[in-house]
Design goal:
There is one protein chain. This protein has twelve helices and twelve strands. The longest helix is centred in the middle third of the chain and has 18 residues. Helix 4 crosses helix 5, helix 5 crosses helix 6 and helix 6 packs parallel to helix 7. The protein has a single domain, classed as Rossmann fold (3-Layer(aba) Sandwich). The chain is globular, with a radius of gyration of 21 Å. By secondary structure, the protein is of the alpha/beta class. Iron/sulfur cluster binds next to loops. Iron/sulfur cluster (SF4) binds next to loops.
């Protein structure tokens, strides 16, 4: 259906759906690369290649896939940390395409990012108090004493004490550092948080504490999350809906239940079959799908379905054309020629 957009960039159809926070249509991020030492013909890396999804207010939407599939680049394009090559992004029904710096700054206020490595994302020369108060100071969010009150309430919100405020990042554990990253992301009262592999640098025991904190904060503050991860156990724990990416494209998306109990795309099936199972009895009954080789280079993706070089179910059509996304059931779609 064609969308009509008014002068403020509002989509006509989105004005009525107040539950929809983010709509992404045909998002692409291409990088030109020179071939060889002396230049030569330019090739294009299609890091993100025509991605579509929607995120509802208050839900956790996860993007999963192997390293290099384009999931983090998608996240960075959403709040214009990197500029998309093309595509439409609507936040609360408003597009920020061709927006001025002031509008992009406002978008970033409402859409914060939490990064994978809590240590390198915190300035080692600054105290925790300064790190958390920085976004409030830059955005002039109150007087000095109001900012100090806000910093105290943020540190307690993430389960740390006021005594941590005068410490430096190197004096904290990995989990405590990630709590500081979360406090800083919450400082400006965002509606959406993009969590880019937020627990993968942490020990397993700490991971569950941080995941519980994400869930508590979501309920308390009515937050919406985009959760980017390669770890399917984490994604199964935290998500409402899941999109699976392969070589810059979403190959399957649906509710957590549908993706985990009835995966339709051979790539999703292979990913799920590789999730480790602790119970030895269940382990024996599980059919592991071993994929051939590494993912192809995004500089030179295979023609047709990008997955055909590794797919155990490949048919002739798979090399000829890229499969369209088909509806499997309500709230569940996949792109595979085998789906009728
Ligand atoms: Fe496999 Fe063909 Fe389906 Fe691609 S379209 S996932 S190659 S069966």
């Amino acid at each position: 259906m064609e969308q009509t957009i008014d002068k403020k960039g509002m989509m006509a159809s989105d004005k009525v759906d107040e539950n929809q926070l983010l709509v992404v249509k045909g998002l692409k991020k291409y990088y030109p690369v020179k071939n060889g030492f002396f230049g030569g013909a330019t090739k294009t890396i299609k890091a993100v290649d025509g991605v579509n999804f929607e995120v509802k207010k208050g839900e956790t939407f996860s993007i999963v896939g192997e390293s290099g599939c384009g999931k983090s680049t998608t996240g960075m394009c959403l709040n214009h940390l990197i500029s998309p090559t093309s595509g439409e992004i609507y936040f609360n029904g408003k597009t920020f395409k061709n927006s001025k710096n002031k509008e992009i700054k406002e978008l970033r206020r409402q859409m914060q990012v939490i990064f994978q490595d809590p240590y390198s994302s915190l300035n080692p020369k600054h105290t925790i108090k300064r790190i958390i108060s920085e976004p409030l100071v830059i955005n002039r969010m109150g007087s000095k004493s109001e900012i100090e009150d806000r910093v105290r309430s943020l540190i307690s919100l993430v389960g740390l004490g006021e005594h941590h405020l005068n410490r430096y990042p190197h004096e904290l554990s990995g989990g405590q550092k990630q709590r500081i990253g979360i406090a800083r992301a919450l400082a400006l009262n965002p509606e959406l948080i993009i969590c880019d592999e937020p627990v993968s640098a942490l020990d397993v025991s700490i991971q569950s504490q941080i995941l519980n904190l994400f869930e508590e904060l979501q309920e308390k503050l009515n937050l919406t999350y985009i959760f980017i991860s390669h770890d399917l156990s984490v994604v199964e724990h935290i998500s409402d809906r899941v999109a699976v990416m392969y070589l810059g494209k979403i190959v399957e998306q649906g509710t957590r239940e549908k993706i985990f109990s009835n995966p339709q795309h051979p790539y999703t099936q292979a990913l799920l079959s590789s999730v480790p199972i602790a119970d030895p009895k269940l382990k024996k009954s599980k059919n592991r799908i071993i994929l051939k080789g590494d993912p192809p280079s995004p500089k030179n993706p295979p023609k047709g379905c990008h997955f055909h070089t590794r797919c155990p179910y490949k048919v002739d059509a798979c090399e000829a054309s890229y499969p369209v996304m088909k509806k499997v059931s309500e709230g569940h779609q996949a792109a595979c020629h085998l789906l009728t």
